[in-house]
Structures are given as C-alpha cells and as structure tokens.
C-alpha cells in the first residue's frame, strides 16, 4: 500500500512537471496559428479562429528575410558538427591508441576550451578576425563554431575509444591496416553512438547560439537565425504572432534531428553513464 501511494505521488509529480513544461510550448503554438488581428482581439491562450501560420510565415520571410538566416544557421550547424566530429575522432584515436608523448596533457589542453566562459573569447576573436579579414564572413563563422565544438567532441570520442578492445586493432594490423585505415575502417564505423551525441549536442548549440552570431557578424545575410529572432523584438515594431511563428519554425530542425538520431543518442548516453 505504501509503495503504491509513493508510486502514485511520483507519477502525479511527473505529470504536473510535464504539463508545466508543455504549457509555454502549447501557448506558443496557439499564438503562431493566429493572425495578428485574431491575436489582438482574443486572449493569448484562446484557440485560433483562423489558420494564420502560413500567412505569418510569409510575412516574416518578406519583412525579416528569415529564410536567409535559416540557411546560414543550417550551414554553420552542419559544417561545425562535421568538422568537430572529423577532427575529434582523429585526435581521440591518436591520444588513446597512438599515445604520443604527453598525450594526457594534450587532451587537457584541448579540453580546457570548455572550462572558460565563451565571453572571454569574444574580444580576442573579434580583433583577430578584423586583422585577418574574417569578420562578417561565413568562413569566419564556420571556423569559430568548429573550433568551439572540438573540445567536447574530443571528450566524447576519447572516452568511447578507450572501450574498444585492443584485439580488434591488432587484428586490423595483421590484415595490413595502418593507423589511418584502422581509424576510418574500424573505429569510425563503430562510433555511431558518439557521433550521434556530438552531432546532436553541437549542432543544437550552434543553431541556438546568439552571442557569436551577434558579435562576429553585421550583414543580415550572414547572421544566424537566433540573431534574427532577437532582432524581431525591436526592429520595426514586431508582431507577436509573426515572432511566435518564427520561434516555432526554428525549433523544428533540432527536434527533427533528435528524432532522427534518438536511437544512437540513447545508446551513447547509456554507454557514457556506464563508463562513469
């Protein structure tokens, strides 16, 4: 009886927390489905009287050029995650298997990029980009996002590569595989779980970044989508339904990425917890 009451209390608490978490999501969805006229004449939590999502999306695209920002964020997220996965997988294999001198010190130096707050990097990167002509360029944004993603990606790949049995690597050597072939034929194909974890975390972080996109870019065609969302609040008098429509739209890619990678992501998180 006591266990049943405790379990019921837990379920009730979880249900209430889930409803509290879903409330702003549902409210955002309701507002995004309303036309500006419908929003002004009704309560914000009321059901929409007419379907205004496509109208709001078309108005946001025409007034704020949101589609350009979305394409920029897609480019930055894809390139940053791919470069981080490629560089971190090679660095993790080198540190764990090739074991150069001071390999653990090299790992700590690279991983220290996650220790300090990113605000510390803004002024040095801003001055460096101005001197190199990388300020307000797509290449500059892709470089900074890739560099910031590598330390965490290295942490994930290093931990995973320590779990791969050395007998597999020795068998690959007997078959004539060198270090590069062993990495790309043995280690990387078996790294679906860490690749999913890195891709999901880092692509989502780049997609949601506001700080670097606001400081290191000036042109609207270069700025990522979160800068556009932030500027909609104070540029030309924003319409709340338009803003909520854009907010709901830009949340779809990260949700779709999680749905697509959920199987590998869950196995990767289980593996990380088992290692700890």
Assigned CATH class of the domain at 65-231? Mainly Alpha
Weakly predicted, low-confidence segments = 272-276
CATH topology of the domain at 65-231: MetI-like fold
Total number of helices: 13
SSE-based structural type: mainly alpha
N to C succession of SSEs: HHHHHHHHHHHHH
Task: State the major sheet.
Answer: none
Task: Kindly report the name of the CATH homologous superfamily of the domain at 65-231.
Answer: MetI-like
What separation lies between the terminal Cα atoms?
A: 35 Å
Give average pLDDT, whole number. 86
**From the alpha-carbon coordinates, what is the Rg to the nearest angstrom?**
23 Å
Strand runs, count:
0
Apparent shape: globular
Specify the CATH architecture of the domain at 65-231: Orthogonal Bundle
What percent of the residues sit in helical stretches (DSSP H or I)? over 70%
Residues in β-strands, percent: under 5%
Task: Describe the 3D structure.
The chain has a domain at 65-231: MetI-like fold, CATH 1.10.3720. It is globular, with a radius of gyration of 23 Å. Helix 4 packs across helix 12, helix 7 packs antiparallel against helix 10 (192-208) and helix 10 runs antiparallel to helix 13. Helix content is 76%, strand content 0%. It has 13 helices and no strands.
């Amino acid at each position: 009886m006591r266990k049943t009451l405790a379990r019921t209390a837990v379920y009730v608490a979880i249900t209430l927390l889930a409803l509290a978490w879903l409330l702003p999501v549902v409210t955002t969805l309701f507002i995004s489905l309303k036309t500006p006229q419908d929003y002004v004449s009704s309560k914000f939590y009321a059901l929409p009287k007419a379907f205004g999502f496509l109208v709001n999306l078309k108005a946001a695209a025409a007034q704020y050029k949101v589609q350009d920002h979305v394409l920029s964020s897609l480019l930055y997220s894809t390139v940053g995650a791919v470069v981080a996965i490629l560089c971190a997988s090679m660095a993790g294999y080198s540190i764990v298997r090739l074991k150069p001198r001071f390999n653990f010190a090299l790992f700590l130096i690279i991983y220290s990029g996650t220790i300090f707050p990113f605000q510390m990097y803004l002024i040095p990167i801003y001055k460096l980009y101005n001197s190199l002509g990388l300020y307000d360029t797509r290449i500059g944004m892709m470089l900074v996002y890739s560099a910031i993603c590598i330390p965490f990606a290295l942490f994930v790949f290093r931990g995973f590569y320590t779990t791969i049995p050395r007998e597999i690597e020795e068998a690959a050597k007997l078959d004539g595989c060198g270090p590069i072939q062993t990495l790309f034929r043995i280690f990387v194909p078996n790294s679906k779980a860490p690749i999913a974890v890195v891709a999901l975390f880092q692509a989502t972080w780049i997609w949601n970044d506001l700080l670097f996109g606001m400081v290191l870019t000036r042109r609207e065609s270069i700025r990522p989508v979160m800068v556009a969302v932030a500027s909609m609040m104070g540029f030309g008098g924003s319409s709340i339904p338009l803003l909520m429509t854009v907010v709901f739209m830009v949340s779809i890619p990260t949700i779709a990425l999680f749905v697509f990678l959920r199987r590998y992501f869950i196995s990767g998180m289980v593996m990380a917890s088992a290692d700890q």
